[in-house]
């Protein structure tokens, strides 16, 4: 399904990114494996993880090259695309997977913790996508696969930075889909459930939390790769601007904000009439203040 195509996968030295890179190669793609080899909070720099994935691909008969640029740095997107073009001569798909965590309750979060996560997830996705866009436009084809999260789409504790970035990526993807659709370029999101470093920091202080973590451990990163390969391929040419969730063997199409219910008053509204009549009429349709785990509460299938 990916024969002749060139794919960039960020954060591909381990976890979800690694499995996506390996699967892309297995289906015929040439792969640029981007990873800086940092710790979960973004500290450090080690080129070994990305090179190991490249070696795995080559040993299996595929073509791959390593890249150790940090997507958080200005100009990194252009340099990553330039390497892909220099080595492989073209670019067909960007998988924006790189990410870090700096979990903290909102009222205790520092500017640095906020900035670090936004720069990797949201700025990194924007920078690499923008760098690829002119090439996609010129060749009249291309696909973006962005990693969002149900933590952003639904909610989670102590992750204001991560949640804001992941919700931002969903909005960015929709804008890309709208702006580049006329050039036959597609942009979609995956919100993955999978056990990886990105979720290994979930607390297990209570029996309920420990049980939830055990459920997540059943969901391996390899479960995400088939949808990523499909969305990158020409088989998905009619799929654009969508958000999917993968949870073990389940694939969900996620809703996007639309009007739920309206109220109308011919003479207009006052604060008092809103309080007395308007809000009580809407309240039955309120979205609960829930976490992702509250919504996806059943055992993975």
Key traits:
globular, Rossmann fold, alpha/beta, eight-stranded mixed β-sheet, 301 residues
Topology:
Elements: E1 6-9, H1 15-26, E2 30-34, H2 48-59, E3 64-67, H3 76-88, E4 93-96, H4 111-139, E5 142-147, H5 150-153, H6 160-180, E6 185-193, H7 207-217, H8 225-232, E7 243-247, E8 250-253, H9 271-283, H10 292-295
Parallel strand pairs: 1-2, 1-4, 2-3, 4-5, 5-6, 6-7
Antiparallel strand pairs: 7-8
Give an overview of the whole structure.
The protein is α/β, with parallel strands linked by helices. The protein has one domain (6-256): NAD(P)-binding Rossmann-like Domain (Rossmann fold), CATH 3.40.50. The chain is built from ten helices and eight strands. It has helices at residues 15-26, 48-59, 76-88, 111-139, 150-153, 160-180, 207-217, 225-232, 271-283, 292-295; strands spanning 6-9, 30-34, 64-67, 93-96, 142-147, 185-193, 243-247, 250-253. An eight-stranded mixed beta sheet has the order 3-2-1-4-5-6-7-8, with helices on both faces. The model has no long low-confidence stretch (mean pLDDT 93).
Largest sheet: 8 strands, mixed
List low-pLDDT spans: none
Strand order of the largest sheet: 3-2-1-4-5-6-7-8
- What is the name of the CATH class? Alpha Beta
Q: Given the C-alpha coordinates, what overall shape results?
A: globular
Record field, number of beta strands: 8
CATH level-4 homologous superfamily:
NAD(P)-binding Rossmann-like Domain
CATH architecture: 3-Layer(aba) Sandwich
Total tally of structural domains: 1
- What is the CATH topology descriptor? Rossmann fold
Strand content: 5-15%
Q: Please, how many helices?
A: 10
- Order of helices and strands, N to C? EHEHEHEHEHHEHHEEHH
Quote the average pLDDT.
93
Distance linking N and C termini:
27 Å
User: What's the Cα radius of gyration?
Assistant: 20 Å
Helix content range: 40-55%
